[in-house]
Amino acid sequence: MESTVTEFLNFPFETDEAYQQGFAELVAGGALQGTTEDERDYIVQRSKLFYFNSAVLRTTGRSLTLEDVLHHQEESNVPAQTSFNATPQESRDGVEPRGTLSFAELKELIESGKTDKIPNNRQIPHDLHASNLSYFS
């Protein structure tokens, strides 16, 4: 596993065209809007891990988890500039962020009208895209 983590940490994400294109699509889709610097770093790191697993390790049958990378860094004292953080340190409202909400928590947020606090929830516009209208004319 150590060689896989080392391969991941040395992977040239900055020059890999497929990764860069995919990440650009994430950014264009608003994945980084309204996020803190720690949250942006976390999203970038998770996107790299996802890409590495699906594009590089897919054919080998191996996979890499965030925990694998963190464990390797703790054991080898990886310098901070190449470090891979576990989660953003603080969310916008000062509470430790969580990966998922329980059904009860989700229900409470919806019932109280706080849908903006639901992770990965965004407003979808109610209007049609103008280019689709010409098709039906």
Automatic annotation (TrEMBL):
- Sequence ranges assigned to domain PEX14-like helix-turn-helix in this UniProt record: 3-76
Q: What sequence ranges are listed for the domain Peroxisomal membrane protein PEX14-like KPWE?
A: 100-129
| Residue numbers spanned by region Disordered | 75-98
- Enumerate the InterPro entries for this protein: HTH_76 (IPR058841), KPWE_PEX14_dom (IPR040554)
Where is this chain compositionally biased, Polar residues type? 76-89
- A Pfam family annotated for this chain is KPWE_dom
What's the name of the protein? Uncharacterized protein
The protein's organism comes out as Steccherinum ochraceum
